[in-house]
Amino acid sequence: MADFTWSYSSLKQYQNCPKQYQEIRVLKNYIVKENEAMMYGKEVHSALEDYVKDGKELAKNYQRFKPMVDKLINISGDKYPEYEMALTHNKTPCDFKSEDRWVRGIADLVIVDGTHAFIIDYKTGSNKYPDPKQLRLMSLMVFTYFPDVLKIKAGLLFVMKNSFVSEEYHRKDMDKSWAMFNQPLKRLENSYETDVWEANPTPLCGWCSVDSCDHWKPRKRR
User: Which of 36, 123, 136, 162 has its CA 20 to 30 A from that of 91?
Assistant: First the structure.
């Protein structure tokens, strides 16, 4: 069995392009270049974390997010902003930075109220193609970290669009949820074992950090 750790973002990167994954995460020849949208997303996440955790007033340009976040704060239960979780290969909780970790992730906001919990993932991008799979992985971790929780309501909160994409998960379905990650994880494991990392050319290649790839070409400036 190949020895690797993963997160939802790393698994998604592999699925998008194994070659990019290899160059950035395995060989470490490149880093992900942050664009303005990514930097803005980090700033918003940090501001919302401080607001939920410490009540720090939102900057003027973030005030429009306040009504949406206030609705979350008003939900009963213990609040865990930017909650770090990690599991070993046996799917038991471990320290986020543990060398024994197998998978890890950070939930933007977890609210736990007895047997019920909520998971919120803030999104600053477009809501045109929502991807709730990350919520499923976060739900599996929350179920593991909080054994009393039986049901989770989760959602992608697109703060720029004031829209919400909701999901619901139940403890009894955990095995089915884990099974949904089996195929891509098996492919990733196979790449580690065979050292085969195929490039997956797409129209986004011009934005890729791996400019040594045969499929990379400078994007056209408008």
Answer: 123
Global pTM reads: 0.92
Nearest to 44 by CA among 29, 26, 56, 62: 62
pLDDT tens for 101-114 read: 999 999 999 999 99
- Could you tell me which residues are beta bridge partners of residue 163? 158
Cα separation, 140 vs 22, in Å, equals 27
SS3 28: coil
Domains of the chain in sequence order: 34-180 (3.40.1350)
Whether 79 contacts 113, CB under 8 Å: no
How far is it, in rounded angstroms, from Cα 144 to Cα 138?
10
* Helix, coil or strand: residue 190: helix
User: What are the per-10-residue average pLDDT scores of the chain (222 residues)?
Assistant: 89 97 96 88 95 93 95 96 97 96 97 98 92 96 98 96 95 98 97 96 89 83 52
What residues contact residue 100 under an 8 Å CB cut-off, 6+ apart?
A: 88, 94
Distance CA 128, CA 216 (A): 26
DSSP states of 133-182: HHHHHHHHHHHHH-TT--EEEEEEEETTTTEEEEEEEEGGGHHHHHHTTH
